Amino acid sequence: MEETSVFEKFELHLDQSAKDFLKETAKWAYFLSILGFIGIGLFVVIAIFAGAIFASMGNTMAGVGVFAGSFGAIMSFFYLLIAAVYFFPVYYLFRFGSNAKRAFRENDSEALTSSLGYLKSHYKFIGILMVSMLVLYALIFMFAILGSLLGR
């Protein structure tokens, strides 16, 4: 005879206040994702214009050297990189908001499950991004200390 655990028998039911909280969260997530997509678009536009502006600034400055014209391309690359990295959490947030709104509108459990999966992906991406940024900051800090010790 096979026994099932308590967790396998567990079925979650949401009361009305929990549903209202999720509905409001979905609306705000959808709104913030739209603002995020607008921000990504601005980053792409800035990348295009920053490349031209910084390239012309580099060419007019004296003493910058041979790489003066490539500074604009470097700035464009970094702005596009930031836009690309920022796209994924905004996309996950958008999918969470739109699927959760649809789930409550159509009373669809599968859409709610899908939306919560996108919310998990959003926070997972943000968490990995934060850990990698902390590692990058720690490396920069260690190399700065090493550079100052070797510079003496």
UniProtKB/TrEMBL annotation:
Keywords from UniProt, A to Z, are: Membrane, Transmembrane, Transmembrane helix
Q: Fetch the Pfam families from UniProt.
A: DUF5362
Report the domain of life of the source organism.
Answer: Bacteria
InterPro entries named among the record's database cross-references: DUF5362
Indicate the transmembrane segments per the record: 28-54, 66-94, 125-150
How is this protein named in the record? DUF5362 domain-containing protein
Lineage at the top is: Bacteria, Pseudomonadati, Bacteroidota, Flavobacteriia, Flavobacteriales
